[in-house]
């Protein structure tokens, strides 16, 4: 049976996901077959497995770091917020329904058998499982029915490493306060602390570490520097949204929708030399980009109305009329059409007028499309004609069906002609396929088209291999963890485990 280790944090964004990914990469490098596990994840960035099941992208990142294929068992419960007080509940990759926060809180303990079935199956296949908590284990109002922090650690009999974020300040108070709010039994399960996101001279920090160790009786096993690695983040906490500069030869603006999902689709552009990619949430930030991207969203109709109310819809339509390339992915693609109709109340119900940039209508249906896919672009005209004939891979995850009308042409065919997808008209393009830019040929064709339109020499843009780039980032992450964490202590904690 696998050995278990759990990373918990003093708060959200303490760095749990990256630390988990870094440890998994270290274990892989050391010859172990390791896997991630997060019993419950709340995120709008999701992924479709080979079996057509939906899981959080953070565990996909961690699986990639471990060198294994993502499995929905690594994230048996995914909560996708639909509004400020409710979420779509996905269990083992299948939609269980929409629930208010109160209803889910009462219901979640019924999911423990599903959680443990997933965990036990991984336990039989791997040498090491690195579990990740969520938020903080010291949320005293939630501890009674906890299934993701100390409650999960008990179920898995996993020793805990508690991470604090020194970049926000008050890391000793974070760690001490969290430990003191745990029960005596839970405190015994915490075998080490980690100070994360440190900048500066560690010798100045050491006296504080010694005093904290004396106060809580738990050793500090690592001081991890603030890392500049390009690895998928948890969605609402990402620092990518803060980038505002337009200093590249090619400037791409992504509309930052309130319920933006799967913005990982655009990472290939972020990593390309000569390309600046920025997120825009108001008209004053839009400027004059070379391309505007409308991303996926968990609530297409409400986010379209948000754009309409704050003037971004009018600004995008004006830019499109002036010849700017506009492209939508999934929900962003649906917005570009003439109408969005929701007879089944999948979202808010009723009918909403679309942006009118693509002659098509979308009807929301209860059945969610979830599939990995591959295909090839048709003959494409307009600024992105370089896409013609290019092959791609990706995945679909959406609740609507779009029907094209006169004046709109299909953009691509999926799975060698099994079905058509996407549409284009003039300088406006759209597709349901997430991850479509991960293929070097696709991202390269888009940038060549934008360069040609702008009169920029596209040979100045570096070719980009997304897979090789990810592997380098995971190795950088693992090197930092290995240099700055007491791995002998980690292996000792892993071997000794805990006694419940």
Question: How would you portray this structure in words?
Answer:
The chain has 500 residues and is α/β, with parallel strands linked by helices. It starts with a strand and ends with a helix. The model has no long low-confidence stretch (mean pLDDT 92). Helix 1 runs parallel beside helix 2 (57-66). The protein is globular and about 70 Å long. The longest helix has 19 residues, at 466-484.
Fold blueprint:
Elements: E1 3-9, H1 16-29, E2 34-37, E3 40-42, E4 46-48, E5 54-56, H2 57-66, E6 77-83, E7 86-91, E8 94-100, H3 101-107, H4 112-125, E9 128-132, H5 150-156, E10 160-165, H6 171-180, H7 184-189, E11 190-198, H8 202-216, E12 220-225, E13 250-255, E14 260-261, H9 267-270, E15 275-280, H10 283-286, E16 291-294, E17 296-297, H11 300-310, H12 312-321, E18 325-329, H13 331-335, E19 339-342, E20 350-353, E21 360-377, E22 391-404, E23 412-414, E24 419-421, E25 423-425, E26 428-431, H14 440-454, H15 466-484, H16 487-496
Parallel strand pairs: 1-9, 1-10, 2-9, 3-6, 10-11, 11-12, 13-15, 13-16, 16-18, 18-26, 19-21
Antiparallel strand pairs: 4-5, 6-7, 7-8, 14-17, 19-20, 21-22, 21-23, 23-24, 25-26
Helix pairs in contact: 1-2, 1-15, 6-8
């Amino acid at each position: 049976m696998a050995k278990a280790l759990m990373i918990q944090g003093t708060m959200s964004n303490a760095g749990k996901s990256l630390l988990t990914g870094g440890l998994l990469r270290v274990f892989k490098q050391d010859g172990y077959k390791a896997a991630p596990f997060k019993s419950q994840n709340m995120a709008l960035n999701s992924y479709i497995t080979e079996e057509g099941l939906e899981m959080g992208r953070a565990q996909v990142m961690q699986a990639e770091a471990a060198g294994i294929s993502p499995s929905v068992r690594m994230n048996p419960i995914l909560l996708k917020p639909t509004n400020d007080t409710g979420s779509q509940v996905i269990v083992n990759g299948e939609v269980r329904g929409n629930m208010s926060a109160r209803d889910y809180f009462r219901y979640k303990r019924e999911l423990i058998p599903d959680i443990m079935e997933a965990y036990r199956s991984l336990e039989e296949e791997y040498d090491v499982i690195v579990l990740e908590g969520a938020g903080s284990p010291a949320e005293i109002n939630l501890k009674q029915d906890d299934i993701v922090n100390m409650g999960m650690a008990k179920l898995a009999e996993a020793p805990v490493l508690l991470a604090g974020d020194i970049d926000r300040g008050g890391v000793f108070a974070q760690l001490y306060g969290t430990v003191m709010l745990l029960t005596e039994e839970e405190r015994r399960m915490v075998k080490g602390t980690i100070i994360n996101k440190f900048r500066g001279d560690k010798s100045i920090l050491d006296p504080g570490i010694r005093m904290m160790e004396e106060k809580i009786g738990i050793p500090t096993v690592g001081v991890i520097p603030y890392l500049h690695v390009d690895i998928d983040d948890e969605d609402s906490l990402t620092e990518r949204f803060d980038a505002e500069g337009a200093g590249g030869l090619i400037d791409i603006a992504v509309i930052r929708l309130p319920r933006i999902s799967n913005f990982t689709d655009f990472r290939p552009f972020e990593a390309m030399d000569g390309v600046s990619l920025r997120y825009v949430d108001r008209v004053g930030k839009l400027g004059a980009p070379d391309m505007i991207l409308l991303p996926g969203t968990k609530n297409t109709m409400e986010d379209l109305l948000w754009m309409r109310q704050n003037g971004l819809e009018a600004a995008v339509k004006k830019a499109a009329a002036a010849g700017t390339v506009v492209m939508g992915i999934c929900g962003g693609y649906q917005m570009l059409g003439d109408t969005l109709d929701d007879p089944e109340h999948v979202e808010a119900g009723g009918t909403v007028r679309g942006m009118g940039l693509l002659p098509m209508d979308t009807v929301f249906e209860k059945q969610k499309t979830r599939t990995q896919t591959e295909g090839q672009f048709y003959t494409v005209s307009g600024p992105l004609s370089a896409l013609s004939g290019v092959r791609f891979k990706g995945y679909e995850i959406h609740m609507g069906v779009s029907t094209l009308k006169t004046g709109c042409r299909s953009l691509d065919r999926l799975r060698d002609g099994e079905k058509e997808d996407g549409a284009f008209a003039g300088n406006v393009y759209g597709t349901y396929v997430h991850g479509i830019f991960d293929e070097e040929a696709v991202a390269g064709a888009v940038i060549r088209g934008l360069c040609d339109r702008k009169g920029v020499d596209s040979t100045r843009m570096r070719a980009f291999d997304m897979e090789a780039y990810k592997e380098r980032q995971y190795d950088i992450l693992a090197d930092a963890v290995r240099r700055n964490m007491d791995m002998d202590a980690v292996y000792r904690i892993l071997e000794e485990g805990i006694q419940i």
